[in-house]
């Protein structure tokens, strides 16, 4: 989201360019790692329809800004995404942070509705519909001390434990504020990114920024769980909104602590580099043994379909488990971690080829849970102790953010914290 135009040009944008698309094209319809075995956030939501979205309907998709929860958590996975973290400027405190969240919320509401931002719009998204754009805002641990709100910092923001395989770059980890941007059009997503950055003004500066992508809507003949850059079906074991305990696992309940976080969630963000040259040198059989699933369709090695439960006790003719003891699917299965569950909603990334000729590519892992100590941490601890996939991935950055519930009409995100 880029900066957006003055009153007269904005009226033209609202009334002709973007709205015209919605009426002409949009009439068709608007309406741990955990990679191969369990990655991908709202993959099931994206694959729930009976037919793929017509390509002509992609631009017309809209997601509501206001609601009980922020958009971008259970929203179907986007084809384009940006993650950006900010640190408050020296001298900026609670008052300045509140003004920033008010600006950002108003901006997000406009852009998600397919309208330009107020002020000097760059026109990057000119002629495009909203393309299911979402913006999601979170607060890091350091945000609370810098705004004088340390007493209101939730226990869920206690630092994540160290994991033996971590090779974290502190400069690209954490941050006071975090914004997730997703859309089904690259220009719409970039427009949002620029608009958010510019709206930060002198209140906050960029700490780090990352770009991601997924399969585009309509790219397959029928809705399917997406794949990651290892070629693995990625998202099979995600919790589903239809599960009876989905809300209690993913969202902070009303009446819980802290009260300002009711309807919110916690996001763990990890940049996980995939050592693709090493992975691609393996035979198909070896890759499948490491993951515990068939590469072609995500079916467990024990048979069935993609959604068939893993038969973890099944033995082969050699007397060994069909799904190896250190297979990623086995170790990341909820039943192996005391029922720990998190909603994975990642993006793939590719940041070029290094001087050594290897691709800097992998997964921008994002998972959502009501309590990271009961969601991400137990699963990652299990993976850290013996996941067969570990030699082929490298955790390079990490962040943990408290994501407030959705804003009501007339309210901005985080208002219940910043003005109470």
TrEMBL record:
It is an enzyme of class 1 (oxidoreductase). GO terms for biological process: iron import into cell. Its cofactor is heme b. It catalyses: heme b + 2 H(+) = protoporphyrin IX + Fe(2+). Keywords: Heme, Iron, Lyase, Metal-binding, Oxidoreductase, Peroxidase, Signal. Binds 1 heme b (iron(II)-protoporphyrin IX) group non-covalently per subunit. Residues 70-214 form the Dyp-type peroxidase N-terminal domain. GO terms for molecular function: ferrochelatase activity; heme binding; metal ion binding; peroxidase activity. Residues 225-407 form the Dyp-type peroxidase C-terminal domain. Its EC number is 1.11.1.-. One of its GO terms (cellular component) is cytosol. It is found in: Cell envelope. Transmembrane segments: none annotated. Its main location: other. Belongs to the DyP-type peroxidase family. Involved in the recovery of exogenous heme iron. Extracts iron from heme while preserving the protoporphyrin ring intact. This is Deferrochelatase. The gene is efeB.
